[in-house]
Amino acid sequence: MTIAFRTIAGNEGPTSARAGVLSTDRGDVHTPAFMPVGTLATVKSLLPEEVRATGAGILLVNAYHLFLRPGSDQVAALGGVHRFMDWPGPILSDSGGFQVFSLANLRKLTDEGVVFRSHIDGSEHRYTPELAVEVQCQLGVDIAMPLDHVVPGDTASGPARDAAERTLRWFDRSQAAAANGPAVFAIVQGGVDPELRRWHARELVARDAPGYAIGGLSVGESKEDMHAMLDAVVPELPRQKPRYLMGVGSPEDLVNGVARGVDMFDCVLPTRLGRNGALFTRTGRINIANARFALDPNPPDPECDCLCCSRFSAAYLHHLFRNGELLGYRLATIHNVRTLVRLCEQMRIAIEAGAFDEFSREFLASYSPADEGVRRQQQAQYRSRPRTTES
Amino acid sequence: MTIAFRTIAGNEGPTSARAGVLSTDRGDVHTPAFMPVGTLATVKSLLPEEVRATGAGILLVNAYHLFLRPGSDQVAALGGVHRFMDWPGPILSDSGGFQVFSLANLRKLTDEGVVFRSHIDGSEHRYTPELAVEVQCQLGVDIAMPLDHVVPGDTASGPARDAAERTLRWFDRSQAAAANGPAVFAIVQGGVDPELRRWHARELVARDAPGYAIGGLSVGESKEDMHAMLDAVVPELPRQKPRYLMGVGSPEDLVNGVARGVDMFDCVLPTRLGRNGALFTRTGRINIANARFALDPNPPDPECDCLCCSRFSAAYLHHLFRNGELLGYRLATIHNVRTLVRLCEQMRIAIEAGAFDEFSREFLASYSPADEGVRRQQQAQYRSRPRTTES
After folding, report:
1. Which band of pLDDT confidence, cut at 50, 70 and 90, is reported for residue A373?
2. Is residue A384 a part of any domain in this protein?
3. Residue A383 covered by a domain
4. Residues B302 and B234 in one domain
5. B192 and B46 belong to one structural domain
6. Residues A203, A313 within the same domain
7. pLDDT digits (tens, 9 = 90+) for A12-29
8. Are the C-beta atoms of residues A296 and A327 closer than 8 Å to each other?
9. What's the confidence (pLDDT) of residue B386?
10. Which of A6, A53, A118, A25 lies closest to A331, judged by CA?
């Protein structure tokens, strides 16, 4: 697989917002781009054409999950993940580093790799940088992530440095293993230490990856730390390569990320929140199960152009959620994904018009993020508890 | 609402298979017709256009469920059930007789009506023939069912006669209450007593309904009894009115029903089985979660033209079910509904070609119904236990 990236607007300063095009063998993706998460080769509840109809041009699957079930060799035997799930566009896969260090029961960590117990059935597996690449080759994805050593957001500098160094050694082995497979991005780690982050970024840049991911963020650290790490890392990255902020995020996170020069995002937030009845609107989140929507004949979000808001009332969506109807999960998922994809479209337009700063200022002034306490609680869950398969 | 019915083929003998057209203000429906069940104004997991794409031209909602939640008055305030769920085609509603006598906690039964406790929250409600019609007027459906007194399949003749007589008195009141609302079908009851069934049919025919439903079947009686009741009732019904066998059924039930002159069917079977991973095929049921499908690159049903079988492998559907993925429920539902609707299409074509007997013989010879023990057990559950909302 080959990929290419070019910026088409913005990109003036080392951390400026920019609009670009990521070209893959399976089509072009306009950036800034939000990638819906299809962990198990399905964006939960949606058909591929519904994902596409939100405007999303690329999606993410998870190598860890597909390695365990049904097995990446089996996906390969069935023609690869694109055919398996009938999504013809580009696919990026996460290696499973995040999952191995959080979701699975980690048994042993050495420079060679990890031994973990499956979160499904407790079976024991060895996982190495080479195997992570092989798994992603078997899936046949367009962009692969190398195995990395992810540490929680509050990790001290010493262990964070050890993890970053190991991630670097693993990246060398991943590159060597990739051959004619997917484009393997590098992942910048380094906890919340800006010096360590900068050093790690420079080391990875010296190895010339086709794209640079920023990992180990949104794992319990503060928003201030996340922004400080982006401010440290992005200036080290080459201007003509795509930058991908992993596992992020919320509408405000996307705006803050693009403002710091990020091009790509993925997160389970829109799909998971949607299944819980929480919908993004232009000013913040609403919960459609709230009694105030029971008789509301207006769309759930009157400013939204998604399938759900174009055709159904808040009262109907409320009714579906109150009764646990599967269609409700679907409609709310479509709404939330469309909202993040449209936000990316709006940012792109603003960047092309040279008006991103104004857009960003207005957006952040009028959008109320979820309660900070709730957010920290959610992030703490990421670090300490078994996850659903969508993690 | 006005409806009309004409037969276009078959219909030679009093119980012959026939093909026809049911015309409503919201469009024509070709018969034999299977009506997917959308109890709470949603065919579970599907959007209206997906239901339509199976070939279904009419669907069923349940007045009992919508009366309790969100309230038929609230559906009316939101523009009626067609707009509420965005289904522009004809809708038939069941009155709730079956639910009141099985799902709800029946507190009091008099000629005036019933008092029951909601299966949702235990709240107490009065329900009368007049209210059942009013509820269905508020929903704005095209065809309504009158409140009837449904008895289990093993009810003795005496109580069955009492119930049939009450159903008759209630039908008179339902007709009087209907005015300019939906077309109100009559429902033939009478347990498994052919004489009682014949008498009841004649009494209802004398009252000139726009269509005739046959109720109180598939509620625990044997298949032989069900067929005997159809053989008793259908000859009493006018040839130029539609005949609707309520709550039926399986593929073999549809063929056996059409062979006895039935035009319309509804049943939760395809949707409920689908959510359990049980798929109809031309020769019987399969369970897609079975390990033998784990690596199967073929469609779940290689003879099927549904969205699921056209695009996805049995292995992918297996994977979705093994992981509890919502898309699996959807795809299996689409497959099962399409299979029953296509069976109706095939019967229509056979009738028009004068070849229904042959079609029926071949179908029944090659189709293996689910194990009879399983079937009886399922039916016993219908009678004795609280139900899911789809009942």
Report:
1. very low
2. no
3. no
4. no
5. yes
6. no
7. 988 899 999 999 999 999
8. no
9. 38
10. A53
Residues B366 and B318 in one domain: yes
Residue B384 resides in a domain: no
Asked if B303 and B253 sit in the same domain, the reply is no
Q: What percent of chain A has pLDDT over 70?
A: 95
DSSP per residue, A67-104: HHTT-HHHHHHTT-HHHHHT--S-EEEE-SHHHHTTTS
Average pLDDT score over residue span B279-299: 97
Average pLDDT, chain B: 93
Q: Which of B233, B249, B266 is the last residue of a domain?
A: B266
- Find chain B residues with C-beta within 8 A of A315's C-beta: 70, 74, 78, 84
| Domain boundary residue, one of A266, A291, A316 | A266
Q: Is B296 a catalytic residue?
A: no
For chain B, the domain total comes to: 2
- Cα–Cα distance, A230 to B1 (Å, whole number): 64
Taking the CA of residue A150 and the nearest CA in chain B, the distance in Å comes to 26
pTM of the full structure: 0.94
- The pLDDT value recorded for residue B103 is 80
Of the candidate ranges A94-103, A112-121, B14-23, the one whose mean pLDDT is the lowest: A94-103
Query: CA nearest B48 in A: which residue?
Result: A327
Contact B96, B132 (CB under 8 A): yes
Q: How far is residue B120's CA from residue B65's CA, in Å, rounded to a whole number?
A: 9
pLDDT digits (tens, 9 = 90+) for B207-258: 999 999 999 999 889 999 999 999 999 999 999 999 999 999 999 999 999 9
Are the C-beta atoms of A109 and A148 separated by less than 8 Å? no
Helix B251-259 and helix B223-233, axial crossing angle in degrees, nearest 10: 30
Does B230 share its domain with B295? no
Is the pLDDT at B376 greater than 70? The verdict is: no
User: What is residue A371's predicted lDDT score, i.e. its pLDDT?
Assistant: 55
Together in a domain, A52 and A172: yes
CATH number, domain containing residue A119:
3.20.20.105
- What pLDDT is attached to residue B278? 98
Q: Please tell me whether residues A250 and A306 are part of one structural domain.
A: no
pLDDT at B390: 53
pLDDT confidence bin for B153, thresholds 50/70/90: confident
Q: Which residues of A touch B46 (CB under 8 A)?
A: 327
* Token couple for A170: 């693993």
Cα distance between residue B167 and residue A90, in whole Å? 61
- Domain-located, residue B285: yes
pLDDT at res. A388 = 42
CA–CA distance, B129 with B102 (Å, rounded to integer)? 17
Which of B148, B193, B263, B266 is an active site residue? B266
Arithmetic mean of pLDDT over chain A: 93
Residues 323-342 of A with CB under 8 A from B: 323, 325-327, 329-330
Q: State the catalytic residue, choosing from B86, B94, B208, B305.
A: B94
Q: How far is it, in rounded angstroms, from Cα B44 to Cα B39? A: 8
Q: Which domain holds residue B327?
A: 274-372
- Asked if residues A110 and A78 have their Cβ atoms less than 8 Å apart, the reply is no
CB A336 within 8 A of CB B82: no
